[in-house]
Write a structure and sequence with these properties.
Blueprint lengths: L5 H5 L8 H13 L4 E6 L3 E6 L7 H6 L4 E5 L3 E5 L4 H12 L3
Antiparallel strand pairs: 1-2, 2-4, 3-4
Helix pairs in contact: 2-4
GO molecular function, one term: protein-N(PI)-phosphohistidine-sugar phosphotransferase activity
Keywords: Kinase, Phosphotransferase system, Sugar transport, Transferase, Transport
Protein name: PTS system, N-acetylglucosamine-specific IIBC component
């Protein structure tokens, strides 16, 4: 038996973590807040139009838990997020103030 009883563990405060916000903040930091033109999504990807998609820090975006990136031309960028893409998109919009 450990130092804490089951009753003590149930009293520990539960901290709710907004994983979508954490992922969105990492994405905005990697891209640059002033680099965004449009923010949209499909079923699994965050679809962005940027002023310059070459200045994006790919490693930071991948470290945030994304599944990959796709560059289309010089300005379009798609980030593969998965099923929670809509939540991440909303958080990115809030962070860069695109409504």
């Amino acid at each position: 038996m450990g130092l804490f009883s089951r009753k003590d563990k149930d009293k520990e405060p539960k901290v709710k973590v907004n994983k979508s916000l954490i992922k969105a903040q990492a994405i905005v930091d990697a891209i640059g807040k002033d680099n965004f033109i449009t923010i949209d999504n499909c079923a699994s990807r965050l679809r962005l139009t940027l002023k310059d998609n070459k200045s994006v820090d790919d490693a930071k975006i991948k470290a945030a838990g994304t599944f990959g990136l796709v560059r289309l031309g010089d300005s379009a960028l798609q980030i593969v997020i998965g099923g929670d893409v809509e939540h991440v998109t909303n958080e990115v919009r809030n962070l860069v103030e695109h409504k």
